[in-house]
Amino acid sequence: MILQGDMCMDSRNRAEHDIIEDLIVFLEYFQRDGDNLTCIQESQPGPAPEGKNLELARCMKGFVDRMPGGFFVYHADGNEEIIYANEAMVRIFNCDTLEEFRKVTGNSFRGIVHPDDLEAVEESIRQQIAASSYDLDYVEYRIITKDGDIRWIDDYGHYIHGETVGNVFYVFAGDATEKKTRLIEEKETFLEEKRQNEWIFQTKLEEYSQTLEKNRQEQFRRLEIIEGLSTDYESIFYADLNRGKIKAYRVGSRFETQFPEGNYVRDFAGFDSDYIRNWVYPEDRELLTGISDAEYIRKKLSGERIFCINYRIVKGGKPTYMQLRVVDVGKEESVSQVVFGYRNTDSEVRREMNQKQLLVETLHEANLANNAKNLFLSNMSHDIRTPMNAIMGYTALARKNLDNREKAGEYLDMITVFGEQLLHLLNDVLEISRLESAQLRVEEGECSLLELMQEIQKTVFFRAAEKNIMFYLDISSLRHDIVSADRDKLAQILSYLVDNALKYTKENGKVTVAVTEQEALKDHYIAYEFTVEDNGIGISEEFLKHIFDPFEREKNTTFSGIHGTGLGLTITKKLVDMMGGNIYVGSEVGKGSRFVVSLPLRLPEACQEALGEERNAVAEPADSKKILLVDDNEINLEIEAEMLRDAGFLVETAEDGKIAVEKITQSRPGTYHLILMDIQMPVMDGYQATRAIRQIEDKNLAEIPIIAVSANTFEEDRRKALESGMNAHLSKPLDMGQLSEVMGKFL
User: Fold this and answer.
1) What is the pTM of this model?
2) Contact 657, 684 (CB under 8 A)
3) Which one of 484, 510, 572, 687 is most buried, counting C-beta atoms within 10 A?
4) What is the separation of C-alpha 602 from the centre of its chain, rounded to a whole number of angstroms?
5) 306 vs 217: CA distance, rounded Å
């Protein structure tokens, strides 16, 4: 029966094989062209279908073309060329014709399969054919349609060999994209659920482990609680109120009479009587009454698991602060197991008391500062509104007089004046804000004190002239001009002080600014004093105590008519502190004020080695040598002449080169020993004047040493000076040490 079954299977397979082979023969010879069936391979080996066979071929091809699923046939060897593909297969690739399908796939099975899937697909087909020559092999793979879309294909194929058709595969194919997508989504869902379940399991496992660890730690904590308390407490006891017993775990010296040894157990009632009587401060004994009464303890712990009592003991004749802490450590609803801990809190209490005192003082200072701010705001309200009202008023007047240019110009000038006044107020407020927020730092750099003082003099010259105030600059004791300092902050300090002096000095008054070089300090530092003195309205002795406080002014602007923020001296004090200096003030009402700023300033490295030499050079007598000082700047003439006179020279000045030439020409030989010549001057500059002097017939006059003194310090300027006939070139501002050294070569 088995043999008969196998024979039946072979017969059936043989019949199917013959039918498929005939179908392939027909399909290989024909393709659809509209409604006509035409022969496409006249030279194809084997007989072409004729008569009934041709009609049968038509029917079979029509049937296959109209199958709902894809069907195609391809050679199993060579390039795996496609023999036939039905209309459904063409549609799967989004093609309109068989020719388009052949073009998209390259007319081969390899062109149908996605390149990334081809090797695995062919290997799977080979394995399935080797396992069974009867069953259809099944593979799934991706394809790339004409439009570039990726789709999935179910491929059921079978390999046959025929004498007529050779080695071929015929394949039933279906679009499995939706199925594959669904399977992928289901797989992802499954994997996600698996991950979620694993995460839940892991979380629960960790929670369980944590619970076990917490329980273990809780057991240890309960065992260690008394030992832990003993590190901070000098005495600690465990009481069982139900049994009326108390056990000592740590005993301080003041409980030794009641508990003579460690782990000593005694009756709870009255366990602290000796301690209270012998040690507790008399006024605080009542606080500890009832501590050795079980019912009192239960009542105190009925709502809370802990209560504390702060009291004092007598130690060394002085009160010491202590604390008793009582803790319910039992699990029962009724209070029975209780721990008593006694600890010294003296340092903590006293620190808290000090902090409270500091808070009280801070609050008091804050109230004072708040009052000062309120006063400041009151004054500022007037100071701000006054220029604002003026600006608004003059703006309205200017609008009404647009046709009168003269009046409109006057009003605009007044708007500018009041605008600058308002800007000054705002700048002071912003400056104090920056200082209080610690945004400023001292940034040292090389700085010329002489140049700085000259700039300040130039800045205030016209303001002083408007009030006919005599402004004096005293630099006679300045020996080291170049220092290392924060130039901007130093200038700001002096500007605030000079501004105040001019502001509070009446017309025809006097303001003096001086810089004095004091003793040398360590590490190449020198103490400098900057003094600003006036004979103005002065400051009352009472107000001198608050003169550097923020927002303070002795008289508000409503009464004094002098505008200000009350911040200028505050800013000055903070800047002086930042630079490591001190500021002092002395004043008398009606006679004037004197501010002195003392600052330690460091000499640059280049000046440190010559510190002693420069002092000697300046101090040497000049034997009354006469110098002609030529400069068109009146301030420069005054400063430089004063410096030279202090050094012992006789000085005569000339305001331009022409005057200098005339003075030399009209002088007798030996009148002038040296000329200090500025370069840039009106009428005749220094170069021209030097050339004119060198051309004087009298050689004694023509050969007088001429030293250029100029702010132009480039090498080209030095070269021009020498080419014009000058003997040397020095830069402004004058450095007396350097000048003395150069002059020594010619005098």
Assistant:
1) 0.38
2) yes
3) 572
4) 33
5) 22
